[in-house]
Amino acid sequence: MWKTLKQIARAGRISERPPAATDAPVESGEARVRDELLRVLGRALAVRVVDAGSCNGCELEINALANPYYNLEGLGIHLVASPRHADLLLVTGPVTRHMEEALRRTWEAMPEPRLVVAAGDCACGRGVFDQNYACHGSLAAVLPVDVSVGGCPPTPSDLVQGLLQAVRRRA
Amino acid sequence: MRVMAPDIALRQASVDANGWISFAKSMAAQSSRLLALWGHDTGTGIDVRACWLGAAGLDLACLLLAPGAQQYPGLHELFPAAARMQRGLRDMLGVHAIGMDARPWLRHDAWPDGWYPLRIDAGSVPTVDGVAAPYPFVAVDGEGVHEIPVGPVHAGVIEPGQFRFSVIGEKVLRLEQRLGFTHKGLARRLRGMSAVEGRKLAARASGDNAVALSWAYCRALEALAGVDPPPRGVHLRALLLERERLANHLGDLGAIANDAGFGFALAQFSRLKEDLLRRNAQVFGARYPMDVVQPGGVCVDLDVAARDMLRHQGGVLASELARLRDIVDQHEGVQDRFRTTGRVPADLASRLGMLGLVARASGQAGDLRALPTWAPYASLGVRVAASSDGDVAARVSVRFDEAEESLRLCRLLLDGLPPGPVSGPWPAHVAPGLALGLVEGWRGPTLVALQLGADACIVSCHLHDVSWQNWPALEWAVINDIVPDFPLINKSFNLSYSGHDL
Q1: Tens digit of pLDDT for each residue in B194-225?
Q2: Is the Cβ of A97 closer than 8 Å to some Cβ of chain B?
Q3: Does A131 fall in a domain?
């Protein structure tokens, strides 16, 4: 236990200031993001992630959001297990036809108004996997998309920025 | 057709149906592992191919079926790992292994039965009429037995797949997997593409294994082109591969301990992983350097400052890792969850033909980096990690050992970085043929079988991830464990869905 506590103290607090949504001239900051989420939503932002056939690169970066540098939950953004608890659907991958129904059903299970963010080049329709017999080639071919976050894979900062942009659209 | 493998001995045989089985029997007799089984439409019949990995290197058997022939002898009784590969081959090309499980595997409802995407004359995909029949999972009978269906969308941020548990109380009697949800039509997309261009797609068959995939792809292509990258380029490839292994192992160590309720470890290991990725971005231009390995070498060189940064980071990571290993090893609660959980004993691992990291945790020796023919590893004296317990604790311990070894290898690679260019000239013409590129990725041997035509365009490209071999072992690992231990066991395997579904 002593070694564990010592290690926690040694690592210290390393959480960083989050980025601003690109269309926001205001200064970035943890408190500002929390305030904005509270103002728009009245509570934390609940996000459901669906992998619609990604190469798993996007999942690595979404998982990185939970590390102490990005400290996603500290900003008031929470990844949830059930779509019924989610305000926002974050989708990765070129939308394989084998994932289409599960994706639609996840979206349909969400309470309205529901936000949709396409994460990564594939979901944005400019990935290496083309439209073909097995793939739609973009999220927009299947669901209405509010914000697209490019990158292969997108960086964690870009992902946070995309989530905040989407919330802003609802304001 | 010429067939080659650049870094390992290769024997190749063209066989008929009888020869196919006797070849497989001789492979079983010499304890070779089935590495991959796939097919290729030659236009005048399907060429069924199987590749084994053994002590003497690779063995490739090709069985060219007569035009219109739809059957070949199944290998699943000799090599259980063949079962799903045969089902995948049937879904792609419409040839059946005699005696195989008749259920579809990669085909769900996106295309109808009877249409085969990799047939040359397949044309555009026909529409599927009506609602697809539910997948016939095997039912377990008996008083008190009930089923827990899971997926394809999981509770956490992971790839999609279905798991069907048959349980009694909390005890798992049977787990059955269903994969194929991330099938992207990769093989068909690669066909006809320029060989140099194809590497980007190959790297993204499984993003967490991108360096291994792109390296294996480039080695296959380089073999056909008659090119060997300069020593500095080869060293940098190995540096990238070891950093990919480290990133994955650090991520897994945190996530596995977190699934045993030790959140501290997730915070600490994910911090170290993030440090590593940020340094990658500074030095290699990307947190995940998926496109740095290129035909002929790599596209990034290191200056003195970059080398010093990486060396310094290696030292910091080594001491952090040692401290964290001490904490995890001495945490009684965590070790209690790890030990005896999700066991795959050595004899079962051998029977299932497991490969790679999870096999090494179940007493199966084997790491391509120990091959005397694979540069630059042959000169580094790689110490292969091993454990015989086969439980979660063993898979954690192998990861710790391999992470430590990767840090040592990175130091050796940085210290001994040869001078010169990082990439060689690329020839204007590449002769046709089939080449097998093989690289020990972080999960295990990653195979790329690349066949080129006369115009240096891809005729067929088969990418193989060891997840094919190891997914069935996970079904065995959970038997008699309790349902709440499944996430922990699954995480300790951490297999690829995308690399399998393609």
Answers
A1: 999 999 999 999 999 999 999 999 999 999 99
A2: yes
A3: yes
